[in-house]
Structures are given as C-alpha cells and as structure tokens.
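Ticket closed. Logging final result for Lipocalin-like protein.
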Amino acid sequence: MRIKPFSIVLTLFFLLGSCEKENAVSVNGLGSAIIGAWSRTDVVPSGVTYTDLRYFDIKTTYTFDSDKAYSYRVDFYGFEDENPEAIIGSSENVGTYEVRGDSLFIKAVAHTSWEKGFKPDPETTRLGGKAYGYKFGIVDDELTLYYISYPADAPVPTQMTFERVVP
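Final structure:
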C-alpha cells in the first residue's frame, strides 16, 4: 500500500495544530487574563538632523480592571542628557473595554493631557466613546496587540507587545 504525500502533510498539520504552547493562555481565558497593568517603554529620537538628535523615553501603560474599566496612559520623560527621570508630559484615555474571544474592544470616553512647557495644567476632553478593536494574545507575561496602522502608502499589519506590570 502506498501512502500519498498529501495524506502525510495533512496528518502532520493536524498533529502540529493540536499541540498547545505551554505558556499561552487559552482564548477562553483571555478575558480574565488581561486584567492588570501592561507597560512598554520606547526610546524616541528628537531633532532636526542626525547630529541634533536627542533621545527621550515614552512609557505606555494599559490598565484593565475587573469591572471592565480601562485606561491607556502615555508618559513622556525628559531627554537622556537632561532630567531623564522627570515626567515632562502625559496623556491618558479612560473608558470601558470588552473581550470577545481573542478580540479586545475599547471605548474611550475621556482624554486628559498636559505638557510641562506648553500646557502645564491638565485638560480633559470628553470623547464620543466610539469602540475600536484589536486582536490580542497573551504568552507568559506579555500582551501583544495586533492591529492595522495607516502610514502614508497603505494599511500595514502591526503589532505591539507590553509586559505585565508586577505590583
């Protein structure tokens, strides 16, 4: 009896597909697994030319509460050569969220921001609460959001990973 190559490939596909990642959270558990704070820090250049570049940090934090409230906060830190530990600006959206399978839907209802040099007093704006969504996954203590970004040319599949903040 001769085994066809297609049968072998199909069998391997099913065997590999049935294996689970040891540290991955099942889709059914994503709703409760997302609860907590998730953060990342990016180093961003600022300057007109390469020789003028100065760098500062941006710390981005998502917080998801068990009561379906969320916040998305972005803190801007001083330049690495001048007050790198000082927060020089901040922006925060607050609202609600919902998890459906591996999709996260967020509704922002208010935005508050301030900036040390231009707008030192926090200012809050009410938002329309329009929902937008992401696909997401959690492996170990990392939350990855998958979304479409829109640079000048065309939509681009994009992802961003955050680490769980340990209290």
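The beta strands are 36-46, 54-64, 69-79, 87-100, 103-115, 119-126, 131-139, 142-149, 156-164. No further action required.
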